[in-house]
Write a structure and sequence with these properties.
By secondary structure, this protein is an all-alpha fold. It folds into two domains: 167 residues, no CATH class; 42 residues, no CATH class. Helix content is 67%, strand content 0%. Helix 2 runs antiparallel to helix 8 and helix 6 crosses helix 10. The longest helix has 27 residues. The radius of gyration is 21 Å and the shape is elongated.
Length: 221
């Protein structure tokens, strides 16, 4: 994966170049605005970074929903939580039971060279709330937008949030295993795993033992 450089970009470059609107595109712009805020002590750039970080989190949660359930997502349900990270996170859990275990199972079953990122959605919701404080701030100007300490605090808060997102996006993939499309033996492994009959290490070991049989079956099809 070629990771683009987000540092030392001008406002014009941030706005006009690499205009992507998925979670990674939002995160990239957030990092660039944050770098500009740090280099120039610019409050507006900090606010733009906070805004793009929020949108990146919302988009990332939405991408998890789409990857998990696809066209099964009811538009009216999505509209109820549009722009609300906490509601989006709850929808992930509602539409995909055992979601965290499904991520663990997917990581274990994923082919070598295809890393899966296990997102901490609770952390994403917290980050969403924290960066929002730099968009919906309150208090005197001397203790907010005209305060160097407020700016430093904002940079630190946003850097932590967007750093977590960028690391996850650039070191792994967002995805889940479609259980219904797996071979019966692997579906049975999933059932045993979610019912705490076997550990994830045992899942990996049994899957490795099954691989010759499953490969032979695929070859015969």
């Amino acid at each position: 994966m070629d990771i683009p450089e987000f540092k030392n970009r001008t406002p014009s470059q941030i706005i006009n170049e690499m205009k992507h609107f998925e979670s990674s595109g939002r995160a990239y712009r957030a990092l660039s605005w944050l770098d500009y805020a740090k280099s120039n002590g610019n409050v507006s750039a900090l606010e733009y970074s906070a805004f793009e970080t929020r949108l990146s989190i919302e988009q990332l949660l939405f991408e998890q929903i789409i990857i998990s359930v696809g066209t099964e997502l009811d538009k009216s349900d999505y509209k109820k939580c549009n722009g609300n990270a906490k509601d989006l996170s709850r929808m992930v859990e509602k539409l995909t039971p055992n979601y965290e275990k499904l991520i663990d199972f997917t990581k274990a079953m994923a082919p070598a060279g295809f890393p899966i990122t296990k997102w901490d959605n609770r952390a994403l919701v917290k980050y969403h709330g924290k960066v929002s404080n730099y968009l919906h701030w309150s208090g005197g100007l001397d203790v907010t937008v005209k305060s160097e300490q407020w700016l430093r605090n904002g940079i630190s808060e946003i850097e932590t949030a967007i750093g977590y997102i960028w690391h996850g996006l650039t070191t792994g993939n967002t995805g889940v295993m479609p259980i219904e499309k797996l071979e019966p033996e692997l579906q049975e492994l999933w059932k045993l795993f979610i019912n705490n009959k076997i550990t994830i290490d045992e899942v990996v070991q049994i899957a490795d033992d099954l691989e010759p049989v499953l490969q032979a079956r695929l070859t015969m099809r």
